[in-house]
Design brief:
By secondary structure, this protein is α/β, with parallel strands linked by helices. The protein has eight helices and five strands, in the order E-H-E-E-H-E-H-E-H-H-H-H-H. It has a five-stranded parallel sheet, with helices on both faces. Helix 1 links the parallel strand 1 and strand 2 (31-35). Bound molecules: flavin mononucleotide.
């Protein structure tokens, strides 16, 4: 069994950037990174980092299937969404995933950051001017424009620190469990 598995869903590459950084930060050679579309029960690990992008307020069924199949694991979540720098929103995004996590896992926490969005969403925000007013449309367009720069270097750095912090939440004994295999 692997020590770490980083599994992610990413349509336009933002979440994959975070997945790559988390994978890089993990302190072991016993690790794999894969797209959730390639995930099957044969890929097993002690610790899972599960990543997703927020799609109309939720995550994909593939991600839900994966999360709800985990038992007795250490589990952390990460991902990207259109909203930036909003801890309350990130908390609600975290809940999208934790609600599916069986209680016999050890939860290590989550990391979310802003990701760029496709141009058609900016057009939709422009169309809101007539319906929701200029102030609302301007605010959403500003968020969209800021998003085009994310994930940025700071986001990657924070993802790296998050991976390190999450790993340190695993009790020491388990961190050395691989010794059972080699001694
Ligand atoms: C169809 C669609 C729906 C989206 N819904 C949401 C949403 O409900 N909340 C949000 O914060 N961002 C939303 N976003 C923004 C994405 O979560 C964001 O662009 C994310 O970084 C994409 O990640 P990816 O590049 O890994 O696919 C949506 C984007 C698209 C294209």
């Amino acid at each position: 069994m692997l020590k770490y598995l980083v599994v992610y869903a990413s349509e336009t590459g933002n979440t994959k950037k975070i997945a790559d950084e988390i994978f890089y930060a993990l302190p072991s050679d016993s690790k794999e990174e894969l797209n959730v579309r390639s995930w099957n029960g044969r890929h097993d690990a002690e610790t899972y980092f599960v990543g997703f992008w927020v799609n109309r307020g939720t995550c994909s069924l593939e991600v839900i299937d994966l999360i709800s199949s985990l038992h007795g694991k250490n589990v952390a979540f990460f991902g990207t969404c259109g909203m930036g720098n909003d801890p309350a929103y990130y908390k609600s995004v975290e809940a999208i995933a934790t609600v599916w996590l069986p209680t016999d896992n050890r939860y290590l926490g989550s990391f979310f950051c802003q990701g760029s969005m496709p141009a058609f969403i900016r057009d939709r925000y422009e169309e809101l001017r007539g319906k929701r007013g200029d102030e609302f449309a301007d605010r959403m367009i500003a968020i969209f424009d800021e998003g085009q720069r994310h994930p940025d270097k700071q986001d990657l750095l924070r993802a790296n620190v998050f991976a390190d912090t999450a790993v340190h939440r695993i009790p020491e004994q388990e961190n050395y469990s691989h010794l059972r295999d080699i001694l």
